[in-house]
Write a structure and sequence with these properties.
The complex is a heterodimer of chains A (about 170) and B (about 375).
Chain A: H1 8-143, H2 147-168
Chain B: H1 2-22, H2 33-41, E1 46-52, E2 59-64, E3 66-71, E4 74-79, E5 93-94, E6 99-101, E7 113-117, E8 120-122, E9 125-126, H3 131-156, H4 166-187, H5 191-213, H6 227-243, H7 247-254, H8 268-310, H9 316-362
Antiparallel strand pairs in B: 1-2, 3-4, 3-9, 5-6, 6-7, 7-8
Helix pairs in contact in B: 1-9, 2-8, 3-4, 3-5, 4-5, 4-9, 5-9, 6-8, 6-9, 8-9
Classes of the chains: A mainly alpha (about 170), B alpha+beta (about 375).
Amino acid sequence: MDLLIPNSGLLFWMTLVFLIVAFIVIKFGFPTIINMVNERKEYIDESLRKAHAANEKLSNIQKEGESVMQQAREQQALLLKEATATRDAIVGKAQEKAHEESARIIAEAKSEIAVEKQNAFNDIRGQVAELSVKVAEKILRDQLSNDEKQMELIGKLLDNVSSPVSNDK
Amino acid sequence: MKFIKQVLLLLLLFTALVPTVARDMSKKDDVDVKEILWGHIKDSYEWHITDLGSEENFYPIVIHLPIIVKSSTGWHVFSSEEFSEEHDANGDRPGPYNLFIKSGEDKANPNLIVEKIGNKEVRPVDISLTKAACTVFIDGILLLLVILIPARWCRKHKADDPAPKGFTGLMHMFIMNIHDDVIKPCLGEDTPKYAPWLLTCFFFIFFANLMGLVPFPPGGGNLTGNITCTFFLGMCTFLITNFTGTKEYWKEIFWPDVPVWMKFPIPLMPIIELFGIFTKPLALIIRLFANMFAGHAIALCFCAIIFIMFSIADNAIVNWSAGTSMSIVGVLLSIFMMLLELLVSYIQALVFTMLSAVFIAQAHVKEHEA
């Protein structure tokens, strides 16, 4: 039966020690730990929330980036197309112009050649005439080197001259 | 895994051999199990650890604890060594200042210090540091260490520091587990006010239970298996419950919502409710005490059965075979009991805390919706 009867001496020590320990632990132990853990929990929750938001933002940015890239690509294609068209146009024009120019130059050259040819003809004609006069002169001089030959020629010439005159009359 | 099994088996065989070394086998000897049991479970003025040697040069290892008594001749403080080891004719152990420790068979004050004044035996004011009182100190210091070390970490760190490791981390988790899963669901918004007290109770009981399982000092003191300890803890819950009770709580006791004939003219329900006030803490006190007491008793019985079997007959061979086989069984059962006690240590602390929380929550009822 003495098992079930509290001992006053032990109760005294139990009360003393337990209340002192409880006071210290309640004052400095548990609230500190509980507050700290709750603070940490809030901090971690907050961090998680922030991380989620950041992730969302990041995915948004990625999506935006992709759309921008797409747009850029489209624009690039468009620009390339335009550039090709412009280049073709320019090349075409240039060719046309070149054709025209070459035709013009050829025509000019032709006319010049024609003029030069005429000039050359005229030149040659003059020279030929001069040469022939000189040749004739030389020949004449050869033929008229003695008097008899001179006389004969004069005679011939005179014949020639007289006859046509008679003929004309 | 296989290696561990072999080692365990060897250890078991070794435990079977140990008692054979210590004893003369061919003698029938009565082992006083009752004495062993009560000696370990009950409070005492010395801390008996073990006995060395055989009967010729018997050498007990005992820590003598201080005796503090106020007898008719004033305060006396001395070592319990001054009480003689020899029992006199009545089974008492005489000591100085007319004081003596009554025998365990005594009806009035078994194993307690009494003072002889003339022919009368008077119990003096006795606040001796008994084994249980020392255990209170040890457990108190342990509780302080176990709680203040993690608390110190909290004071030295900020919320955004990396998480604590090791023991501090474990205690944080343990405390928050009890706080969030046991106390909070019961108390709701009153939690911050009562949680520290309930947590103190939980960890004190839990560590006292665990220390009770350790078979040598500083453990071994059977504190939570002592009715004084559980009585104190139960009383604290009782006082908190009734002194912080709301008006609604008292109204439900004295004028509950039952048909009028049940409370007037014979106050049937109020009487039952009034009894309930006292049975609640009593249940706490008895439950914790009985669980820990029984656990220790069973664990000791399994150990004692080995020694009983070794001296069961007058034949050495019978003694040896019975003792050896029982050693193996006894050790296995003791291991099982230890593991069970570990579980019980936690469960009883949990139950005490949870019920205290429930009782406090019941004393804080809000006005019922009509």
